[in-house]
Design brief:
single chain, alpha/beta, Rossmann fold, 6-stranded parallel sheet, binds 2-acetamido-2-deoxy-beta-D-glucopyranose, UDP-glycosyltransferase, glucuronosyltransferase activity, UDP-glucuronosyltransferase, transmembrane helix, UDP_glucos_trans
Amino acid sequence: MSLRILLLVGVLAATGCSGADILMITMGGTKSHKIPFLELAKGLVPRGHNITFLNGFPADFTLHGLQEVTPSGLVEYIRNYTNWDLLGARMRGDMPLSVWDVFRFPWQVCDATLEDKETLDLLGRKFDLLILDGAFPECALGLVYRLGVPFMYINTVGFYTGMMALAGNPTPYSTTPIFYRPLTDDMSFLERLSNSFFTMFVDALYVPTMLCLQHMVRRHLGPDVPSIWSLGRNVSFILQNGQASVTYPRALLPNVAEIACIHCKPAVPLPKDLEDFIAGAGESGFIYVSMGSSVKAANMPDHLRKLLVQTFARLPYRVLWKYEASPALLTDLPANVKIGRWLPQQDILGHRKLRAFVTHGGLLSMFETVYHGVPVVTMPVFCDHDSNAAKAVTDGYALKLELETLTTEKLIRAIHKVIHDPKYRREAKRRQVLLKDQRSTPLETAIYWTEYVIRHNGAYHLQSPARNMNFLQYYCLDLVLFFLGVVYLIRSLTRLYLNPRIVQLGKEKLH
Ligand SMILES: *[C@@H]1O[C@H](CO)[C@@H](O)[C@H](O)[C@H]1NC(C)=O
Ligand SMILES: *[C@@H]1O[C@H](CO)[C@@H](O)[C@H](O)[C@H]1NC(C)=O
Ligand SMILES: *[C@@H]1O[C@H](CO)[C@@H](O)[C@H](O)[C@H]1NC(C)=O
């Protein structure tokens, strides 16, 4: 043990605050879901906490105090499920994921995870806190119940409000755009109609898929596991992957804190090969192209790849392109283009000579682009990309293109526009200043609330009773119904009483 760790342990012992054992779980189907968890873990480990992290993507690095558990059933299920060509589907105008695929993922991934001995071994250990992904947490709620400890969420897909709503946060259709549509929080009548329809569609699909999932959970963990809904309502705290200046200003309960950009970092100098490549462009600079980790650029249809290559060849800039294939396979690459299987995205975004970012518009990429103040051309593919794009366009630092109707001309024009119209960079910089103007960093906020929940063994005193109310109760519609009933009753009685015939009969009897 190094002296520093010894000192740390000494300090912790002296303050009476001991390290906690924390289990983090994400069953998100894409690797980006890991990022906020790993950032929080890196912040918690030096404070003496012990982190175990269950996910479907084998670890890329080791950190003393952090143990990643990647059950082979989960890893293999996700690998099978995500061997997709999302770009091709989007270009054909198809739904990138069919309704069946959306329906089957939550319970099939749950089955694959709970079947695995590595997962069940965790039930033999003791934890102080569980931190689950707000996207697909339901399966892990079974583990929460078995371990009998408090839990929190990191709501990785910031625009997905399902778990926030279950915890009692107000999410009215009027101002809460559904995460998979190109809508903002400022909607016309027709947009609100569409938003309500698509939200109800998701809610309707959610019920049967959760019933299947609940069946899986009870099969693996015992028939006494309560309903997924009642377990989900008992969340102690939610770390929300959003921030009013980059997502939307929302009404949040006191057990929610916003931590967008928890992973954002100032740029450091690039490796020499990349720096040399960029320097070769002189003062004209370069653009950066990445479709993120989930889209799998190497699976894209050849006509799209050719379209991109032809576009890049005609640009007066150098182009750094994240593309998961060996350069030897791409014989038609123009001299101004360099590809990389993995590129240090934030160091590139923070580079002085970067002119624009061409992206699929994943949420973390959008946060990074604002953090580094870079204008973007976005081409949404699936999941929340459309709502991320809608927000960035509204904020004025992005131009959005439709993959279905994409042409070389359109892409060239869009890239030139975000570079030469100063509005785009100015708005990116303005959002950057707003994002950074916070009382504490997102990581400090996340650490504070995580330790708060540990200190108090849950944060049940922050829970709102709204979480236990149904729609009728929450809006007092049951009272309205009751009131209407009383009015109706009184009216019927008075009618009966004032009916002339009855009154007449009554008079006759008196005589
Ligand atoms: C930390 O977790 C490991 C498993 O990764 C476990 O063996 C160890 O006992 C834990 N340490 C503490 C101090 O809780
Ligand atoms: C993944 O796909 C292979 C080949 O189709 C299949 O044999 C395997 O059972 C699948 N694994 C899971 C976990 O679904
Ligand atoms: C919430 O979780 C805590 C800790 O596991 C448990 O003691 C409590 O009974 C749960 N409450 C409900 C309503 O499920």
